[in-house]
Amino acid sequence: MPRDPRHDILFEPIRIGPVVAKNRFFQVPHCNGMGHTKPRGHAAMRGVKAEGGWAVVSTEEVEIHASSDVSPHVEGRLWDDGDVAALRLVSDAVHEHGALAAIELAHNGMHSSNLYSREVAIAPSPICVLGSYTPAQARGMTKADIRAYRRWHRDAALRSRRAGFDIVYVYAAHELSLAMHFLQARHNQRTDEYGGSLVNRVRLLRELLEETKEAIGGDCAVAVRFAVDELRGQDGIESGGEGREVVAMLADLPDLWDVNLSDWTNDSATSRFAPEGYQEEFVRFVKGVTRKPVVGVGRFTSPDAMVSQIRRGVLDLIGAARPSIADPFLPHKIDSGEIDDIRECIGCNICVSGDLTSTPIRCTQNPTMGEEWRKGWHPEKIPPRSGEDSFLVIGAGPTGLECARLLGRRGYPVTLAEAEAQLGGRVTRESSLPGLSAWARVRDYRLQQLNKMPNVEILRTSRVAAAQILEFGATRVVLATGARWRRDGIARANLRPIAGFDRAGVLTPDELMAGMRAPSPVVVFDDDHFYLGAVIAEKLRREGLDVVLVTPAERVSAWTVHTLEQRRIQQQLLELGVRIETNRNIVEFDGSRVRLECTYTGRESSLAAAAVVAVTSRQSDDALGLELGSQPEALAAAGIASVACIGDCLAPSTIAAAVYAGHRYAREFDWPQSDAVPFRRELARTTD
Ligand SMILES: Cc1cc2nc3c(=O)[nH]c(=O)nc-3n(C[C@H](O)[C@H](O)[C@H](O)COP(=O)(O)O)c2cc1C
Ligand code: SF4
Q1: What global pTM score does this model have?
Q2: Which of 258, 259, 293, 318 could form a disulfide with 225 if both were Cys (CB 3.0 to 4.6 A apart)?
Q3: Is the dihedral angle over the CA atoms 326, 328, 331, 337 positive or is it negative?
Q4: Is the peptide bond between 72 and the residue preceding it cis, with omega within 30 degrees of 0?
Q5: Residue 624 half-sphere exposure, CB side, CA atoms within 13 Å?
């Protein structure tokens, strides 16, 4: 399809110092849990982005010295010449598709655990090592330390050029970089020429920019990533104050300004807390203060919103981390007028959880993310059918939809049968809850694709029984029937049913999502620890009920530390007036009160409760699978070669895991069974 002429402006080339970006799509730095430990996986992932049309593809933050060791997190590493070859893989993969390769040089200062290197952390002034409760402190840097740091940075810039990069970033953002720590008055209490006034605090960043330009500026563009606002009022940098002044002081020194918010939780805000374009109000001043191109971010997935940013003079380049993860081919799809085919990021930050759990990146919308090298998966290229199979996929939740989409793309005849009138399963149910409307994109993208496939038939309100499956005529049956929330309280803290949870008055999230009302006061018992318990509490509170959230964990939605949401979630509940009881297990519900037990002391207390919502664990809807599995002869007689139970109906997990399960089945059902590790690994070198 031809490109919509309204989007032409997005494809104009932009000069950045000595290099030219072929269009305005800029994949800003994002970590991926592969970095220096899995360089082939990392390179292949960046290569796919370049292939998808991004003019610039950046690395994640790349540690420049052993005193910036952020273990156990896995970032890029450029400590010495030994790291150049791994980064060369990245720039080569990016160049292969005509994009520019950018590298973000980082020293994390007092955010470095140095757990691997055992170096002493450094900071502008002595301070605790931040970011965790690591029992260590950073020492204040001497002038000699500052000179050494500048030398490391210059050396890293030279190595970056040798590694083939076109754009070299000086990083002063996110409260994660030494250059930023020097800018922040609360962290920089120096009394020499590097502390005190803003002119002094900006000195180090200026020197880094000047020295990087002097070292490599003839060949490479020098970019700065700077957080113009920390959203902490006068205690931090503010876009109306020092943020603006810093940009004005350095105005035309860098070749490119990449401006955003700090800290990371503000920058990568989830859709629950920030809409597309949420950074505009903070960064829009920048273009008025510099003549250099400006890139900014804000979970941009709509080409019209991107065009608007440029036409209104907010940005020159559209920066994206998550939209490029959810759809590495986003620029290509806009270029070829395939707007409906864009797989829009849902803003859930599962991608961030890879970094925070030190594992390869994954994405809810894009199951191929992180699998480009180790599984050879490509987001747009799918192997054609390998035989004459036909498929009956039962259940049109995230697993069934993705499975049918991919089998359909492979060219197989597919029937997708859904018991309900609505498609989408859990994503449809959950997207009706406060803040989760973007979850529906998981369904909408897949339906959009399925509706174009003549070889896929979708049957709604079609609950199928085993006998019908045997008669249907498909050679393969895929059960993706999902899971339902348990009512008995069994999860982590309680391995047996909770006394009284068989009474009326105990509700499940499924019942609330189906429209059932809870009486007040209501206790939400969250032994699930991801987002849903808090979302249910929020919903009930917004309906005017007195709500207490009880959790055996030490904080609300404990796992959401990995999606950068935990603080906001707890803050929001407190502000809404939800009472929070942490470190408490429910041991009994008598119809009007719940009996609680302290998870440390066992000491008892109680709360009034007309109802309890059990957000505990889920039970797979696997009855059909068990029934079919018990009839091997009938299956053989019906010509059914396999029955597979996948996704939540096998074992409940995240939506990302559900989508992955559907995708994996469709790619791998025709592989020979084997005990081999199901992906390529990057093994540690045993020789120097
Ligand atoms: C998984 C992930 C990892 C990130 N890692 C980095 C990083 O290494 N360095 C950096 O400057 N920003 C990092 N960011 C922040 C992004 O560059 C970006 O500023 C932010 O996500 C907002 O842009 P978006 O809405 O397009 O995602 C990361 C973001 C994500 C989602
Ligand atoms: S994991 Fe979620 S937030 Fe991250 S890119 Fe994918 S859809 Fe977007």
Answers
A1: 0.97
A2: 258
A3: negative
A4: yes
A5: 26
Q: Are 231 and 240 in contact (CB under 8 A)?
A: no
Q: How far apart are CA 485 and CA 525, in angstroms?
A: 12
For 491-495, the CB contacts below 8 A with 24+ separation are: 491/527, 491/528, 491/616, 491/617, 492/527, 492/529, 492/552, 492/617, 493/527, 493/552, 493/585, 493/599, 494/527, 494/585, 494/586, 494/616
Can you tell me the mean pLDDT for 624-640?
A: 95
Give the position, in ligand 2's atom list, of the atom nearest the Cα of 441. Answer: 7
SS3 labels along 606-646: EEECCEEEEECCEEECCHHHHHHHCCHHHHHHCCCCEEEEC
Answer for the pair 362, 660: CB distance below 8 angstroms, yes or no.
Answer: yes
Question: Would you give the DSSP letter of residue 8?
Answer: G
Is 170 within 8 Å of 250 (Cβ atoms)? no
**Half-sphere exposure in the Cβ direction for 555 (13 Å, CA):** 13
pLDDT of residue 687: 64
SS3 for 40?
Answer: helix
Q: What is the pLDDT of residues 151-199, one digit of tens each?
A: 999 999 999 999 999 999 999 998 899 999 999 999 999 999 999 999 9
Encode 412-431: b = buried (16+ Cβ within 10 Å), e = exposed.
bbbbbbbbbeebbbbbbbbb
Indicate if 267 belongs to the active site. Answer: yes
Whether residue 358 is predicted with pLDDT greater than 80 in this model: the reply is yes
Q: Please, which pLDDT band fits residue 133 given cuts at 50, 70 and 90?
A: confident
Distance (Å, whole) CA 608 – CA 612: 10
How many C-beta atoms lie closer than 10 Å to residue 681's C-beta? 10
Strand partners, 550: 525, 581
pLDDT digit string, tens, across residues 536-561 = 999 999 999 999 999 999 999 999 99
Which residue in the list 229, 263, 267, 355 is annotated as catalytic?
267
Q: Residue 587's beta-bridge partner residues?
A: none
Give Cα separations from 274 to 157, 270, 299, 354, 673 (angstroms).
35, 6, 9, 21, 45
Helix (H) or strand (E) holding 350: helix 350-356
State the Cα–Cα distance between residues 181 and 447, nearest whole angstrom. Answer: 47
**CA proximity to 564, closest of 323, 324, 154, 269:** 269
Mean pLDDT, range 78-85, rounded to an integer: 97
Catalytic site residue 412?
A: no
Q: Could you tell me if 19 and 25 are in contact, meaning their C-beta atoms sit under 8 angstroms apart?
A: no
Is the separation of the CB atoms in 567 and 265 below 8 Å?
yes
DSSP letter string, 509-537: HHHHHTTPPPPSSEEEEE-S-SSHHHHHH
CA atoms within 13 Å, Cβ hemisphere of 688 = 0
Query: Which ligand does the CA of 26 lie closest to?
Result: 1
Who's near 274: CB < 8 A, 6+ residues apart? Answer: 299, 347
Residue ranges around ligand 2 (CB below 6 Å): 322, 325-326, 345-351, 363-365
- What residue type is 325 in one-letter code? I
- Cβ(316)–Cβ(310) below 8 Å: yes
Q: Which residue has the tokens 């791998």?
A: 668
- CB of 297 closer than 6 angstroms to any ligand 1 atom: yes
What does the pLDDT read at residue 685?
74
Select from 30, 56, 366 the residue to mutate for testing ligand 1; criterion: most ligand atoms less than 8 Å from CB: 30
Question: How confident is the model over 84-95, as a mean pLDDT?
Answer: 98
Report residue 134's pLDDT band, with 50, 70 and 90 as the boundaries.
confident
Question: Which residue's alpha carbon is nearest to atom 29 within ligand 1?
Answer: 30
